[in-house]
Amino acid sequence: MIAPTPNPPYYAVIFTNYLTENQDGYHEMAERMVELAKEQSGYLGHESVRDQMGITISYWRDLESIKKWKEEAEHQLAQQLGREQWYQSFKTRICLVEKDYGFER
Amino acid sequence: MIAPTPNPPYYAVIFTNYLTENQDGYHEMAERMVELAKEQSGYLGHESVRDQMGITISYWRDLESIKKWKEEAEHQLAQQLGREQWYQSFKTRICLVEKDYGFER
Predict the structure, then answer these.
(1) Would you call B50 an interface residue with chain A, using a CB distance cutoff of 8 Å?
(2) Tell me, what's the pLDDT at B93?
(3) Is residue A54 within 8 angstroms of chain B, CB to CB?
(4) Mean local confidence (pLDDT), A52-75
(5) Residue A63, class by beta-carbon neighbours within 10 Å (0-12 exposed, 13-18 middle, 19+ buried)?
(6) Can you tell me the distance from the alpha carbon of B13 to that of B79, in angstroms, rounded to the nearest whole number?
(7) What domains can be seen in chain B, in order of their start residue?
(8) Chain B contact for A102, CB < 8 A?
(9) pLDDT-based confidence at residue A4 (cuts at 50, 70, 90)
(10) What's one Pfam family the UniProt record gives for this protein (chains A, B) (predicted)?
(11) Cβ <8 Å between A94 and B97
């Protein structure tokens, strides 16, 4: 689903990644992280697609919300397991959304 | 491939979309637009994934480069056909990438 974000400005965290072959526990953790993110203050929505490469974008009210989410305890564990086990490579980009526009048939 | 972007700041254009059932000519045009984008001044790279939803992110040096690309003649035609025929819905977000970090095994 295209995330129903409010009018800009707001923030986007673009997480582009490739997985390793060791995916033990990954799927459950990914689902848990989506549920946990939704509970965070300042969370505005997310979009996620995977083919071989995965792109997950989460949208946030401000940098403070992003910082708190990065430091959340369960999320810290997920990030650690991601580096140790699940991700072959990733890039995270913190972005200020300055403008948006859309189209719906 | 994760786009090998330079150090921030730079810009990202996040294009999230769903396709219609009428995809005549879409694939060829999408490939042509990738080739054409690469030739534009200020183009830094792109990442694209589709499952049902598609996310394509293109990276640019500055807002001026994004504006010129939006107004490029062939791209204008592609945008028009997209609205008339190929896209069920889309959202475009223009973003200033303030910070990034990555990981590679």
Answers:
(1) yes
(2) 98
(3) yes
(4) 98
(5) middle
(6) 15
(7) 10-97 (3.30.70.100)
(8) yes
(9) very high
(10) ABM
(11) yes
